[in-house]
Amino acid sequence: MAITVNIYYSGVNGNAKKFAEEMLASGIVSDIRAEDGNMGYEYFLPMDDRETVLLIDRWRDQHAIDVHHSSPMMAKIAELREKYGLHMKVERYVSDHAIPAADKAFIKE
């Protein structure tokens, strides 16, 4: 059962985007993507909010998230969040891996 965590990082003066850029440039993102159980780690910029960055973080299961959260990497992430003065809103979704037939009619692959 895959778990997707959406984290909205918000700040001022473009700090959320600077945070994401530093996460990428520092290699932290690459290290997270290489962790056992990570299925995706991508940043997105909302079109109507220039002070927010959306992270979509996907994991195989809760155990993989727990291992990630207990890693030294979390201290680095927290340090960068503080550096850029960011606030977070978090949403969590558990995948059922099923797309109903009625929904498939709206998906173009």
Per-chain topology:
Layout: E1 3-10, H1 15-25, H2 28-33, E2 38-44, E3 52-59, H3 62-69, H4 73-83, E4 87-94, H5 101-104
Antiparallel strand pairs: 1-3, 1-4, 2-3
Helix fraction by DSSP (H/I, runs of at least 4):
25-40%
Topology order in helix (H) and strand (E) letters:
EHHEEHHEH
CATH topology heading: Alpha-Beta Plaits
Let me know the average pLDDT.
95
Q: Which structural class fits the helix and strand makeup?
A: alpha+beta
Strand order of the largest sheet: 2-3-1-4
- The outline comes out as globular
CATH class: Alpha Beta
Alpha carbon gyration radius:
15 Å
State which percent range the strand residues make up: 25-35%
Q: How many structural domains does the protein architecture include?
A: 1
CATH architectural category: 2-Layer Sandwich
Unreliable spans are: none
Distance between the termini: 23 Å
Main sheet: strands, sense, barrel: 4 strands, antiparallel
Number of helices: 5
Total strand count, please? 4
